[in-house]
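Appendix B. Chain record.
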Amino acid sequence: METNFIKQHKDSNTFIIEGSSFFDTPVHLNGNLIVGDNTDFWSDLVVTGSLEMRKYVTIKGSVRAASAIIGAHSMIEGGVKTEQDCTVLDHTMIGGNITAGGDVMLRPNIKAGIVDAAGNIEVTGRAYVKELRAEQKIIARKDML
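Structure tokens predicted for this chain:
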């Protein structure tokens, strides 16, 4: 794995990936991760802590993290699995399913397979998903422009 693109903030155990980076092998990190804009992963991304992706990130595999914020206009060919909450921002495309151990928030115009949450699922605007499965509530909100 190329490490020139990764910096680490040791006090918070957070890794930071510069924007416009790319990784041609699977990325597995023990800690939290912040991913810069326009970054490409050609395989899976696994993070033991929280994941925060900026805009236009492409992942050719799947994503696993303790919690995740998936940036707007991103594309994940596989699925997303989190132990806690998962937020998917505007115009993101996920080829597989979203499975969360907590709540899921879906912003306008996202595409995904089945969305399965142990908590609530909150949908703002139109979401193009196959099915919503919430163990608690499904909350639908009108898109506020």
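Further analysis of this model is presented in Appendix C.
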